[in-house]
Amino acid sequence: MSESPQSNGIGEGRAPSTVFTDQQKNGKAHRFTDSAELGSASPTGQVALRIPADAGQLAMLRALAETIMLTADFTIDVVTDVRVALDEVATTLIAASVPDTSIECEFRFDEQRVRVRVGAVTGSDAGLIEHSFGWHFVETLTDSLAVSSADFDVVRCGYPVVVELTRLRGETPPE
To answer: Interior CA angle at 175 toward 74 and 118, to 5°?
Structure first.
C-alpha cells in the first residue's frame, strides 16, 4: 500500500478519515476510519479536535464525542455520561473563554477507560468553579475529574485551563 492520501473527507459532508491507495489492486482506494477496520478486537486510540469557543459549536462537539465513543465500542450508558459531562465542561469553558479562542478536546481510550482532556484560554485564573452545581454533576458522571490552570499567557491573552475526566468502560461511576 502506498501512503498517498486521496481525501480526508473534510469539506465533503463526511467525518474525517484517511484513504490509502493499494497499488497492487489497480489503485483502488481503501478507507480506514476506525480501529475495528484495522483488525483490532478491542479498540484503543487517540482522537483530538479543536472547535471555536462558541456555544453554537456545542452540538458539533457532542456529536463528535458520541461518534468517537461509539466507534471505540463503549456502552451507550458510558457514551451518554461522557457526552453530558463534556457538554457541561465545554459550556463552562466557553462562557469563561477569551475572544477568538478554541476549545481543544482530546480523547484517549483503551480496553479499560476513556480519558477526555478539554482545554481553553479563559479570562480569569479562577477557571472552573469546583464548588458549583455543574462541577458536582460532572463528578457524578465520571470516575475522576481534575482541573488545572497555568499562569497568564501574554501571547494568548488569558489563562490556559485544562479539565481532565476519566470514565471506566461499562462500569457505574462511584457515588
So the answer is: 55
β-bridge pairing 18-22 and 28-32: antiparallel
Please, what is the end-to-end C-alpha distance for the chain in angstroms?
Answer: 50
CA–CA distance, 118 with 88 (Å, rounded to integer): 11
At residue 42, the pLDDT reads 57
- Grouping H, G, I as helix, E, B as strand and the rest as coil, residue 128 is coil
Q: Please say if the pLDDT value at position 116 is more than 80.
A: yes
pLDDT tens figures, 66-111 = 999 999 999 999 999 999 999 999 999 999 999 999 999 999 999 9
Residue with cell 458510558: 78
Burial 11-37 (b: 16+ CB within 10 A, else e): eeeeeeeeeebeeeeeeeeeeebbbee
Q: What is the mean pLDDT of residues 3-17?
A: 38
Give just the sign of the alpha carbon dihedral 119, 155, 153, 54: negative
CA distances 166 to 1, 83, 96, Å, are 37, 12, 23
In whole angstroms, give the CA distance from residue 143 to residue 92. 20
